[in-house]
Amino acid sequence: MLQDFNHYVGINNEELVLGYTKRVDGFSNYPKNSLNMALYVDDDITNVDKNQEILAREIDFETKNWVIPNQRHGNNVLEITSAYKGTNVKTLSEELMDIDAMYTHEKGILLGMNYADCAPVFIYSITDNFIGIAHAGWKGTKLEIIKILLKEYKGDIEDLRIIIGVTINKKSYEVDSNVVDGTWDIPESAIEVNGDKFFLDLKEINRKQALEYGLKESQIHVTHYGTEMEEFFSFRLEKGNTGRALGFIGRRST
C-alpha cells in the first residue's frame, strides 16, 4: 500500500498525503549526508531546515503548515487546529509538550512526529476530513495510545483506515523482561522467546489493539518496511547515534 518515493515511503494523491521519511540524500552529518528531521538531536538547525524543505517540495506541503509536538512516550492526545501551524518546525518551543498523538478535522495542516524505531500509526477517514497520527513505542503501545486516538473519532468506525508504518521489526527488537511483564496484554503472535531474550512485535500489538477497538482486518494495513533496513534511521541498531525520521499525514486544501 505504501509507495516508494525519493525521500519517503507513503501515499500521495490529490488530497491525502502521508508517509515516513528515509535517511538518504540530506544535509545532515548525523550520520553524513542524511535526512535528519529532528531539531533535538546533535545536528545543526540549518541542516534540519534544508532537509524539511526537501520533503516540503516533494510532497507539495509548505513547512509553515506543519505541526510537530514534543513527544514523551506517553498517551496524551491533542486536537490540532490552524492556530498551531508552524509549531516546533523551524525552532523548538515549549508548546505541545508531552503529546504523542494528534488529530485534526482541518485541511491544510500536516501533522508530523519524529521516529527512529517506534511505530508510526496513521489514521484517516474515507468520508470526512479526520486524520490522526500516533507515536507508539513500547510505552505508548502498553498505554494503548492507538485506542485513545481512535476514541476521538465521532463518525462511523467503518469509515476509518489505519496504516501502521515503518517500525523496527520483531527479529531486530530485543527487549528486557521488564518490558514484557504481566501488566499488559501481549498477543502470543507478537512475542518470541529465545532463552532469556524477548523479541517484541510492536506492529502486531497495535494491529490487535485496533481490532479490539472494533476495526476490521480490511481497514488495517501493516507495512513490511522496518527501521532495520539500511534506508531508515534506527536508534537501537545505531546505539542512539543517529537522526530521526518524520512520520506525517495531511490533507491538502482545495
What does this structure look like?
The protein has 254 residues and is an alpha+beta fold. The protein has a single domain, classed as 4-Layer Sandwich (CNF1/YfiH-like putative cysteine hydrolases). Helices cover 15% and strands 28% of the residues. It has four helices and 17 strands. The chain has helices at 45-59, 138-142, 145-150, 202-213; strands at residues 3-4, 8-12, 16-21, 28-29, 32-34, 66-67, 77-79, 101-104, 110-115, 119-125, 131-136, 160-164, 174-175, 191-194, 197-200, 220-222, 245-251. The protein has a six-stranded mixed sheet with strand order 1-2-3-17-9-6, with no helix packed on it. Strands 7-8-11-10-12-16 form a six-stranded mixed sheet. Strands 13-15-14 form a three-stranded antiparallel sheet, with no helix packed on it. The longest helix is centred in the first third of the chain and has 15 residues, at 45-59. It is globular and about 45 Å long. Its cofactor is Zn(2+). This is Laccase domain protein. Belongs to the purine nucleoside phosphorylase YfiH/LACC1 family. It comes from Phocicoccus pinnipedialis. Keywords: Hydrolase, Metal-binding, Transferase, Zinc.
